[in-house]
Amino acid sequence: MSKLVINAPKGLLRLVILDISSKNPISGTEVIRYIENQTNNKWKPSPGSVYLIIKNLLKHEYLVEIYSPESNHKKYASTSKGKSLMILEKEKLEESLTKNLYSIKIMANLLDMNDIELMNMIKSNLEDSAVK
Q1: In terms of residue numbers, what domain contains 112?
Q2: What is the pLDDT of residues 86-105, one digit of tens each?
Q3: Is residue 4 part of a domain?
Q4: Which end of the chain is more exposed for a tag (fewer CB within 10 A), N or C?
């Protein structure tokens, strides 16, 4: 069996960066590690993708750069403008998730899976990523 790799929907990386930076300042490397941990290493965004999005969020004042002289690293924190954007984006995300659930249900039906089998598959896969 080939290794499963997540094909993240457009805009998801941006939302992850906004969300985690609203909780604590975070570096680009920490963003990548966070996503790897959350997905059991099935999604590893490239540094180029992460830093391109961070640069764009900085430009639009959704993030602010914080430089730590003792660690010699840059971290990024969400601004109030970024937090407001995230609230709006979460509403859209919920709608998207609901739509995708119906697509998943159709895919499961095509695979002759009943609801219990589908739920067990989802649970099993999510437990794999929660182990880390």
Answers
A1: 12-130
A2: 999 988 888 888 888 888 88
A3: no
A4: N
